[in-house]
Amino acid sequence: MFRDCSSLLLLLASQGLAYTWPDAKVDHLEALLYQQQQYHGSLVGSDVRWCFLTTFDLDELRAISGRLTAAEWIRVAYHDMATADVEAGTGGLDASISFETDRGENEGPAFNSTMKQLYLFHSAKSSMADLIAMSVVLAVGGCSEGKVWLDYRGGRIDATEAGPLGVPEPHQGLEEHTEIFRKQGFNQEEMIGLVACGHSVGGVHGSIFPQIVPVLDGPGNEASLHPFDSTAATFDNHVAVEFTENSTQNALAFGHNETTRSDHRIFTADGGNLISRMAQDNDFYLATCKNLLERMIDTVPKNVELSGVIEPVATKPDYIDIVVNKDGTLFVRGEIRTIQGEGIDRDRRQVVVHLKAGDKKISAGTTWNGESLPFHENRPSFDWWGFNATVPIAQGLSFDVEIIDGGDSKLETNGGNGFPLQTDIIPQTLKSCSSTAVKGPSTINVTAAVGVSYPSHQIRAVTDLIKILDEANFDSVILSVDVPHAQQNSLVPRIEPTLVEMKKTGVLEGTGYSLYSASLDFGAAFQGLLSYDVIGRRASGDSISEFNSFDSLHRCS
């Protein structure tokens, strides 16, 4: 399937210099966000790709009508951010909400339900806070049918305890609401806009707020939903249109309980000016919401430095695996992800990997492995091309990617220096294993081939390499496993590295590499992505093979 991505490709071209592979801070988040379906699809947004007034409850393991997952994700993100104090630099979107689900200001099943849905994608490189922010991007993108795509940044840090009280509640007055939003960094007009945006989808549940709306017993509405507007499953300006027309069914605007008419008080705080403008122009409404919701998810504690906007990467290697052979060569295999675009014929496209091992150059053809489809058709799709090659052991292993479309050829050089491969420390996946369980202990046994950096002028032959590649240049070799730890009063585990010193277990004669091994048993069950690093420590600087997935290892017997 091919997508019209010409404008997106121009955008990527203008931003390409800003990205260099690998980028440990954003690579995994980029894959989660943009590889949604089919081959290597993350499925993060599968619950909100289409906005249905039904949610699959992970506790009851069944669909419940009258609940909208997208609305719940937006609500959870706002409640997580809501206790921010931007002047003090505290709070914001930090996943502290996972400790706060028993508070009166966080009523209903949406909070724990959202944690359980996003928990599956939690890892050392995808904090729960980053996932909550991503959920808003996907929820709004899905319910707007792709019309609104929020800029997304990574780097949020999960809180380890509950934040202060202070989420605005319907019974509070306008003055109190205005002060709460001011602390969050929003003025009166922005408060009006953010509430109008947040209440575009979903509604009020009688099963949770019987003091605001009655409980409904009719079929197809088990959760007793009273929608904010007539298009409760579409992200549009109907919440504003129907308010200004006095035709709204929004219980927070014209409900029987005057005390809880918080939307009415907020929408009329400026005399009805902004809500009227939003009602008159859906494009203005959507643009306003894009700006305000981006600010909402980017409100973070002062100690957090967010990445730049994460755009889809046009050409990106992944799933790289290197085996050190006894004959003094390296067997390199992996995949290259290329972006699709208008006028590209996959059947005629060729992708060639040009490897450089010292002064040796080796080219490897590729085979098409599959296609990743996006969250929405106005996002790009990707093709995956598998390759493998055997190269000599040498200093400075890297590669370029040549993409040939008919008579046109483009060489991707990763900013001019090639796509680098780590050769100081190489996990040997065929000699390693892992064993995990949803309930019960997990185990990992890792063996890595360890050498050192060496000057290229010393390289003459494999026999010279044997003298140069000597693990003694590392003070120590460490296995670092990203272990999940259960946290009291939270469904979300804390992920922290556990360090184990690796021991020399053998020498790969004729290669200049030695084998180091270590194992770790840990008791915490985890349904997210487990990963490990291998680190070589030395005074001149560490070498690291980072964020290796347990899934790349065979199961320990």
Question: Can you summarize this structure?
Answer:
The chain is α+β, with helices and mostly antiparallel strands and 557 residues long. It has helices at residues 6-15, 27-34, 69-81, 110-119, 128-143, 174-184, 188-198, 238-244, 251-254, 262-267, 273-280, 282-297, 462-468, and strands at residues 37-38, 54-57, 62-65, 203-205, 225-227, 315-324, 329-339, 349-357, 360-365, 367-373, 382-392, 398-405, 408-412, 419-420, 425-427, 433-435, 442-450, 476-485, 494-501, 503-508, 513-522, 531-537, 543-549, 554-555. The protein contains 13 helices and 24 strands.
CATH superfamily of the largest domain: Peroxidase, domain 2
Number of strands: 24
Task: Give the name of the CATH architecture of the largest domain.
Answer: Orthogonal Bundle
Fraction of residues in β-strands: 25-35%
Instruction: Let me know the largest β-sheet.
Output: 6 strands, mixed
Which segments are poorly predicted (pLDDT under 50) over 5 or more consecutive residues? 1-17, 453-460
**Average pLDDT, all residues:** 92
